[in-house]
Amino acid sequence: MATYCDLHIHSCLSPCADDDMTPWNLVGMARVKGLDVIALTDHNTALNTPEAAAAGEAYGVQVIPGMEVTSREEVHMLGYFPSVREALAAGEEVYAHLPDVKNQPALFGNQIIVGAEDTPSGTLEKLLINATDLSVGEVCDLIRAHGGVPVPAHINRGSNGMIGALGLMPFLPEYPVVEVYPGVACPAYAVKGRFVLHSSDAHRLEDLQERTFTLDALPTAGDVMRLLRAMDGRKSGI
To answer: What is 2-236's CATH number, 3.40.50.720, 3.20.20.140, 2.30.29.30, 3.40.30.10?
Structure first.
């Protein structure tokens, strides 16, 4: 079954995202675009995943609670979790590994936590786009410890992709699932034998992915997680 997905989306909690990227707005846009399953993946936190899950139930869009963690090597790693509870627990642990550098909203953007009825309920003090003190391997271990699946983000794009940050893509069996950014060249060796995701990395509502990427899974968050876990299991043995 072809399930239309966008598994890399930021909310208004990420300082680099628009303030109107509230959980309810972005899930609503996913519904308008005809997507079946999406993932909310803010930088180094999962605090807006509860409202995204609530919006998903209301709008009929399946939401995977996620996060985009920055390793100390400046590699962006996506983490996908089976429930909001596990995502929040992982997010709390990741946040503790961020440096004590306060966000400056005028410079970097707002970091808005959204509560019930899509209304702001607070902000986070630490700048979320900083790197943690965790290595790439430690980030993967943390994600898996909370029942999640780690996926290197946009490996072919910029200094935060794994190729740019490390100078090359490690060979299999490391990182059996990767995200490749559409429209940007990617070395053939980096994806050979790997399960490849294409997502939007949307920071604005209009940038959410159209019905362009599908997974061979049922249109549920649980079945997409099952597929991702099976692909990741080729490395981790779970």
So the answer is: 3.20.20.140
